[in-house]
């Protein structure tokens, strides 16, 4: 059987993925993790054939967990399944070592096609992801400033752009307000912005909002 680890902090979504995978009888043995830390802990204590990982999780985010996981198990295929549009996170996911990137609104057949592809050692890239990757590799020397942000800084940047307060972000990510404030300061510095209003305007003009 194919041993799968599903890392996502939403129990309803985990249940849905399990139901989808179990539509193929006796093929998958599935375990669950509710955070990036739990996923890394389970991966240290057991061997998996495939990991399905969300990006936005409390504590250590999915991209950081993915990077650490691939450092220790470079051959383990990780398929990222996220609520975020491909153009906003796919490039970062592939740079961190993902074997594929899917939006959570994908159809059942696309998910199963992606699972099959990455299990065979390939990369699953949807047409929209392919376009995003080509754009990121087009040789343009003037890269967007947001590419200077770390994965955590980018996550905080996106959440502020969505109108969330520092306190709300800290609560959602299970981090301290001080830590989030530090990330916010670094984001503003790297993007040459003065305040949250300018940050939100930057996100809107660069199509980085939901």
TrEMBL record:
Example GO BP: phosphorelay signal transduction system
InterPro entries attached to this UniProt entry: CheY-like_superfamily, NreC/VraR/RcsB-like_REC, Sig_transdc_resp-reg_C-effctor, Sig_transdc_resp-reg_receiver, Tscrpt_reg_LuxR_C, WalR-like
All residue ranges annotated as the HTH luxR-type domain in the record: 142-207
Superkingdom of this protein's organism: Bacteria
Keyword list, A-Z: DNA-binding, Phosphoprotein, Transcription, Transcription regulation
Limits of the Response regulatory domain: 3-119
One Gene Ontology molecular-function label: DNA binding
Keyword Phosphoprotein carried by entry: yes
Residue list for modification 4-aspartylphosphate: 54
PANTHER family referenced in this protein's UniProt entry, alphabetically: NITRATE_NITRITE RESPONSE REGULATOR PROTEIN NARP (PTHR43214:SF41), TWO-COMPONENT RESPONSE REGULATOR (PTHR43214)
Protein name: DNA-binding response regulator
């Amino acid at each position: 059987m194919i041993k799968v680890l599903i890392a996502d902090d939403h129990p309803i979504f985990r249940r849905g993925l399990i139901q989808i995978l179990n539509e193929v009888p006796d093929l998958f043995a599935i375990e669950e993790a509710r955070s990036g830390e739990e996923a890394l802990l389970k991966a240290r204590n057991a061997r998996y054939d495939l990991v399905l990982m969300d990006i936005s999780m409390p504590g250590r985010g999915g991209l950081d967990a993915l990077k650490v996981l691939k450092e220790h198990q470079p051959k383990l295929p990780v398929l990222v399944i996220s609520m975020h549009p491909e153009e906003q996170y796919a490039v970062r996911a592939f740079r961190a070592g993902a074997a594929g990137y899917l939006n959570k609104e994908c159809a059942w057949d696309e998910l199963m096609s992606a699972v099959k592809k990455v299990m065979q050692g390939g990369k699953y890239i949807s047409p929209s992801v392919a376009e995003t990757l080509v754009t990121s590799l087009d040789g343009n020397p003037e890269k967007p400033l947001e590419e200077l942000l770390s994965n955590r800084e980018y996550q905080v940047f996106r959440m502020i752009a969505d109108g969330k307060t520092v306190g709300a972000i800290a609560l959602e990510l299970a981090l301290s307000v001080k830590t989030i404030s530090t990330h916010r300061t670094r984001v503003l510095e790297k993007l040459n912005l003065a305040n949250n209003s300018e940050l939100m305007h930057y996100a809107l003009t660069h199509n980085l909002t939901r």
